[in-house]
């Protein structure tokens, strides 16, 4: 209804145009205030809804973070990191949540270090077992190899010799099995995987003199290297 129509209605009969204009202006102002109030009310409702949603998200984050701290989940370590990163991605900017995040990060870091050490220990044990099997297989092979048996018997004849002269005779006989008196003798004192640590290298002549003096054969043959003529060019020993 426009202003001209209103002036023709019975309700406005007797009012002057300025009066009618003022009344219309006031009516518009009232409607504007009502509309603004409604808008503000709607905005406040939206803020309250958002606040409630954020509060619920914060509580959910606390519960899930505490579960990670208490080890109440069956998640793997990688899954726990995924859970943590999901919560961090919510960007809640809450002091309590941030404190829990820091604690979870510290705990997961320690858990990862524990798993790393455990894995390293398992590798070490497997390598130790593999070395034991290899050494046992080598001992068994050596005990059945006539060449190993011959060298062992020669060593034992030196340490059990009844006199120095007899020991010296046994040394000469044993040296005939080698291509040179300077043939290297390697004594492994430790092993890590396939890597071995050796004692100071010596020669077969010096090693045989050592056996004569000590009268003890404390090492076992782990490997022999031969030349084309069947003479020993290198001897490797390990501690018994």
List descriptors.
rod-shaped, five-stranded mixed sheet, alpha+beta, 240 residues
Task: Give an overview in words.
The protein has 240 residues and is an alpha+beta fold. The chain has helices spanning 3-8, 17-70, 77-88, 95-144, 146-159, 164-175, 204-214, and strands at 184-192, 195-198, 202-203, 219-226, 232-239. The protein has two domains: 1-144, no CATH class; 146-239, Roll (Nuclear Transport Factor 2, Chain: A), CATH 3.10.450. The protein is built from seven helices and five strands; from the N terminus they run H-H-H-H-H-H-E-E-E-H-E-E. Strands 1, 2, 3, 4 and 5 form a five-stranded mixed sheet that branches. Strand 4 and strand 5 form a beta hairpin. It is rod-shaped. The termini are far apart. 12% of the residues are buried.
Instruction: Briefly note the structural class of the backbone.
Output: alpha+beta
Order of helix and strand elements from N to C terminus: HHHHHHEEEHEE
Taking the alpha carbons of the first and last residues, their distance comes to 115 Å
Kindly provide the radius of gyration, computed on alpha-carbon positions and rounded to a whole number of angstroms.
47 Å
Could you report the average pLDDT, rounded to the nearest whole number?
82
The number of distinct structural domains comes to 2
Largest sheet: 5 strands, mixed
How many E strands? 5
- DSSP helix count? 7
Gross morphology is rod-shaped
- Strand fraction band? 5-15%
Helix content: 55-70%
Low-pLDDT runs of 5+ residues are 5-9
């Amino acid at each position: 209804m426009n202003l001209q129509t209103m002036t023709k209605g019975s309700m406005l009969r007797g009012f002057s145009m300025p009066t009618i204009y003022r009344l219309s202006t006031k009516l518009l102002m009232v409607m504007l205030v009502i509309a603004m109030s409604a808008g503000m009310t709607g905005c406040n409702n939206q803020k309250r809804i958002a606040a409630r949603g954020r509060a619920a998200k914060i509580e959910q984050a606390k519960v899930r973070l505490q579960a990670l701290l208490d080890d109440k989940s069956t998640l793997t370590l990688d899954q726990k990191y995924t859970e943590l990163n999901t919560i961090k991605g919510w960007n809640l900017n809450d002091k309590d949540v941030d404190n829990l995040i820091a604690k979870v990060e510290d705990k997961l870091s320690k858990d990862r270090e524990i798993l790393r050490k455990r894995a390293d220990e398992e590798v070490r044990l497997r390598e130790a077992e593999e070395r034991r099997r290899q050494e046992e297989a080598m001992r068994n092979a050596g005990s059945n190899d006539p060449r190993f048996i011959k060298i062992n018997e020669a060593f034992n004849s030196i340490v059990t010799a009844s006199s120095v002269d007899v020991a010296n005779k046994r040394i000469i006989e044993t040296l005939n099995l080698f291509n040179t008196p300077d043939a290297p003798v390697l004594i492994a004192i430790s092993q890590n995987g396939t890597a071995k640590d050796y004692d100071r290298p010596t020669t077969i002549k010096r090693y045989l003199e050592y056996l004569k003096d000590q009268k003890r054969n404390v090492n076992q043959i782990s490997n022999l290297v031969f030349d084309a003529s069947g003479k020993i060019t290198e001897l490797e020993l390990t501690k018994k």
